[in-house]
Structure formats: C-alpha cells, structure tokens
Amino acid sequence: MRSPHPPPPERSAELRRRFAEEARCERPDLSTLCLLIGAEADGALDEAGLDSAQVELDRLTGELPYRPGSPRAWALALRELLGERYGFHGTPADYRRLESSLLHEVLRRRRGLPILLSVVWLEVARRAGAPVYGVALPGHFVIGFGEAEQQVLADPFDGGRVLTGADAELLVAGATGAPLEASMLTPAAPLDVVLRVLNNIRAWADARPERSDVALWAVDLSLLLPSHPARLRYERAQVLIRRGDFLDGADELEAYAEVVAAVDGPTAERVRDQARATRALLN
C-alpha cells in the first residue's frame, strides 16, 4: 500500500485551523484531534471519512455491556470486545508504518502503535461511561481504569491484556532500564497524548529523509498545541533547511534564538551563527 500523502494547501490550512481551535477548547476532544492529524497525513480522508470514523467509535461503544462495574470488569469487557471479538492489537511491523499512527487507519486495519490502539480503547470506554484514562509509561502507552488505589492497567497493543504490577514493571524496565515509579501511572491529559502521537510521527519521518513533508506537517501541528517544547522551533528550522528552504529555515533559527536568549546566551549565539550560515547558502 502506498504511504498516505498530505492534502492540498487549502484543505491543509482548514484542517490546521480546526486543530488549533479544538486544542484550545476547555475540554479538547481526543478523537477529533487524532482524526484531524489523520486528515493532515492522508489527503484521501475527507469529511465523510472523518464522520465515519466517529460513527465507528460510537458503534463499538454500543456493543459494550451496560456499565460492567469495577475497574477490572471494565478492562475485561474492553478486552473481550476490542481485543478478542474485533482483533485490535499491534505487531512489531506496525512500527514501520505511518498508518499505525493515524486513527482512521487503525480503526480500519485494527492494527497500530500502542498509543493509537489506546486511543481506540479510551474513546470507546469513555463514550460508555468508564473511569478510563491514558497512562504514558516510558516507551509503551497503556490505559488505566479506576482511582489510584484500585487502578487496573490494560495493554491494547497486546489485545487489551490486563497487566499485573510485575507486567508494568517489566514494560518500564524494558524501555528505560529503570524501575517503575508511581508518577508514571498518573492519567495523561488529552493534549499530552496528542503531542506524543505527533512525536511518534516525527520519529517515523526522521528515519525516512524522503518523507520530510511528513516531518514538517507533524512539527507544524505540534507547534499549534497551547503548550509545546520550545525546541520544536529549532527542529522545524532543520526540517526546512533539509528541504532546501534556506530563507524560512534561517528565519526559524533566528526566532528560536530569541526564545532561548533570555536563559542561555551562548546557545542563542550558536543558533544565530547557524542562521547566518544558512543564509549564506542563498548566495
């Protein structure tokens, strides 16, 4: 299958406007933001496709039993529906596909990265009234049910397998070599989830220099979030320079230098030197 390509500029501008507007809502909608990311990635995803994805999440929700009860009962009900009946899960090969980070494709293929499969679990469970939230373990996103004292974790990448404490410790140790800490088990805010999705897309593109178009729109969407790392501007400059857009790349470097000058003068000066060297490429 051909990797998806972004929409025309006019469509992209409208999608970005809607993305920024949704991200600044009092309660940003996770599925809407993820689907707008998908539309920015895939020019074939039109308004009907966006609506169909939301309808599919609603349909899956309608197949859950009515309010299963305890956090563990919710986790088991989601596993039975999404993991066992519909076969949502991940494989190592999914890390090599851009589609694995696009919600509409994950709903279609029933395959994806841990965080996008978690979004499916989260959105279906949330619609059904479950006490559910994302848990951003280092290197492996999972979902949680219930309050801290009775928290139940599940791994959508593994078909919704309910995790023991030892399982969670192994996931963290495998990703970082460090022990599991209580702070790692706190609920992830929707915009933090969205930023992590975009981080994954940028990492995918960074490994594929021929897809600098993906790297650029992913960093552009990241910059539309109300809170984002300042260094994203430096990353955007590097992408522009790699694409041969030396003038805009130099402008972006200078903007980043202004941001960091107040806290790190030497770094700001080095970035200004890079901007000057980039402008010299125009001669």
UniProtKB/TrEMBL annotation:
Pfam families reported for this sequence: TPR_9 (PF13371), Transglut_core2 (PF13369)
Domain of life: Bacteria
InterPro entries to which the protein is assigned, alphabetical: SirB1_N
Domain Protein SirB1 N-terminal, chain residue ranges per copy: 56-199
Recorded family membership: Belongs to the UPF0162 family.
Protein name: Regulator of sirC expression with transglutaminase-like and TPR domain
